[in-house]
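Example record

The entry below shows one chain as it appears in the dataset: sequence first, then structure tokens.
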Amino acid sequence: MGEDVITERRQAPAVSARTGTAGIVVPTHNDGANIGPLLQRLLDEPDVGEIVVVASGCDDGTIATVTRISAKHPETVRLYVERERSGKVSAVNFGLAQLRSPILVVVSGDVLPDRGAVAKVVTALAEPGVGLAGGRPVPVNGSTTAIGHAAHLLWRLHHRLALHQPKLGEMIALRAEAVVSLPRTSVDEACFQALLEGAGWRSVYVPEAVVWNRGPGTRADFINQRRQIHTGHLWLRRRQHYAVPSLQLALLRQELWADIRSEPKGMRPTQLAWTAAAVGMEAWARLLARLDYLQGKENHVWAMVESTKAPAPDANGMGLRHG
């Protein structure tokens, strides 16, 4: 980030006075509707000792909200501002370098961990040899529309695949001694897995650590998001020789069929039609990603997926539950 990052509160201590063992990095871009509830949730977690927010190219209320919360919790919350976006990887690398805690956790600015979820991924790192742990993203989208059904189907499949091979994202915890700097070409947390597992650490999936997020709300946003993710995974496989489980098409087909049969309404005509539409969108996104990859295109700085930027799922006491 270099000179593009400034500290909003220059007198911030290097280490919080709180006794929590986990330091949190929150990379954020225009998450003003979610950042307040997210920070309050993190402050309520006893395992959290310090929080670093890296606000990249924000032109909404994100910075004002974090500044206000930082003023109330000056020993815990520190804000860094990047004038122009240089990508999530750059923000994560910078944020991790500011922490002094033995456990480091990366939480995206547009999600909301369930109560106690941070403690669950932190606890998972106590097992010998485990350097990385991640929770289970669950969408808050309604499932009574075709696009809502696609979001829920996608995350259920991610959950099923992660039970075979950890597929971590949205919230990950790392041992400080295992942390490495991500290459600029990486686009998500899968690169941490590739690098850490290559260095001899193990990754674990913690499905009990639920992280609420909002999936795309339109077909265009769904395809755009999936295209960017898949392009990154293709580059990851080429550069790090690491394949995420969603690249294993036989396993993906197996778990898709298992999901259809296990869902109460999975075999109904409407649900089958929606599932077919979701598969079609995913296939189209992967084709576009393949073309991007073959043309040498990379997405260091993602195009924002507007429909995923919404208030925290239980910010108004919705009391969501998961199965």
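Notes for this example: The longest strand covers residues 202-213. Residues 52 and 98 are 7 Å apart (CA to CA).
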